[in-house]
Design brief:
This protein has one domain. It contains five helices and no strands. The longest helix is centred in the last third of the chain and has 26 residues.
Length: about 130
């Protein structure tokens, strides 16, 4: 357990940062000249980076690029719980933020992009067949 946490420190720091940024009040957000849907793009980016960091930690832990389906399922579970947890917190505790299904959808889209990117680059780089 400690070995896993030692290698996942970047992902843990990023997850805490995402949790804080998604739950703090955004003062003056109406004055920031961004396009409609910028919030969704931010959610996508947060969870894409989190997924990549989780894979990076796993690679460092096992000292190889091999992966198993169980690793992908664990990463999917962790990110789903974090994304869903953030939306539940916004709905119940941090009521000054809006909980939206589209935010959760964008979180999971970022996770899917990270998983797809890892599998695609892993297969391309090492010329392996997907199991």
């Amino acid at each position: 357990m400690i070995n896993t946490l030692k290698h996942q420190y970047l992902a843990i720091i990023w997850a805490v940062l995402v949790l804080i940024l998604c739950d703090i009040p955004m003062k003056g957000s109406g004055r920031i000249p961004v396009f409609e849907g910028f919030d969704k793009l931010v959610h996508l980016g947060f969870f894409f980076v989190l997924t990549v960091l989780l894979f990076y930690g796993k690679i460092r832990q096992q000292l190889s690029y091999t992966y198993r389906i169980i690793t992908i399922l664990k990463i999917l579970l962790i990110t789903t719980l974090l994304g869903g947890g953030i939306e539940i917190l916004q709905l119940t505790v941090f009521t000054y933020r809006s909980a939206e299904w589209w935010d959760f959808f964008c979180d999971m889209t970022g996770v899917g992009m990270g998983i797809f990117g890892y599998i695609f680059l892993h297969r391309f780089r090492f010329n392996e067949k997907l199991v």
